[in-house]
Amino acid sequence: MEKIFCYGNTKKGKKALFVSGLGDYSLSDTLECGQCFRFDLVDEGEYECEYTGVVGNSFLRIAQREKGELIFYDTDKEQFDSLWEKYFSLDTDWKSVKADVLSALPDNAVLKEAAEAGKGIAILRQDMWEALFSFIISQNNNIPRIKKIIRQICFLYGKKCESFCENCDGCGKCYSFPTPEDILAAPDKLNEAKVGFRYRYLLDAAEKVASGEIDLEKLKYPTDFEYAKSELCKICGVGDKVSACILLFAGNHLNAFPVDVWMRRAIDEYFDGDLDYKKLGNYAGVAQQYIFHYIRNKQNK
Fold this sequence. Notes:
With 301 residues, this protein is an alpha+beta fold. It has helices at residues 27-31, 77-87, 94-104, 109-117, 128-137, 143-157, 180-185, 189-192, 199-210, 225-232, 240-249, 261-270, 284-300, and strands at 4-9, 15-20, 39-41, 49-55, 58-64, 70-73. The protein has a six-stranded antiparallel sheet with strand order 1-2-6-5-4-3. Helix 4 packs across helix 13 (284-300), helix 10 crosses helix 11 and helix 12 packs across helix 13. The longest helix is centred in the C-terminal third of the chain and has 17 residues, at 284-300.
């Protein structure tokens, strides 16, 4: 997959880096399938599919106007190479990954249909700490409320990015994510964000990471998956589902297979209640996203 780069202007004359040659990559499917919580759809954007979000200390406005092309506002090739290519997993041949997933269960019609419907999904490579914190918040929660809590936490603890969304009103959408040390310095702010019963879980996570008891960077692939999961489960409130989410969406463990309410429903309804994810091989987590995307869209329709 050979990427093509060019600088140009958007519909409204804003400078942007246009990246094409990305195959079936779908920005909306990738950002709307429950992987991350810091990207928001632009209601009146220049293109039908357009988002703003924050990664690290960098604010990004990104759009897609046609299949296989992404538009990065106010971005140069150097920043793309150092940050965005890796974060959006644009260095991965997702067509080959899809073929590998289907080869694991070649006779399964549901998986084939789900993979075709979700072929534009890529697995992001997020920051491990942010993923840990965010998926603790995700417990017994829905996506709009998760995003609202995280925005408030970023506003209370974080710093405003150098570049930010137009007419930013302190909504938290343009603020960096707090570090474990930030949380420990003022833990009561968590209650202002209404994290509820998750307060002690978040505090325990911050304490264990800040102290070095758990080194998140050392849990990334190719570290053994079961070991990485057991380390994360030492944190209060982190179990199989949350640890699998962290390792899949941040740790590059593409074999991780989170099972939530949607996935349990999909397995019961479409796989007769029995789906051994280990049979899906090294890309079981990609299959999980295909199935998750498939059942959510089917239910919504």
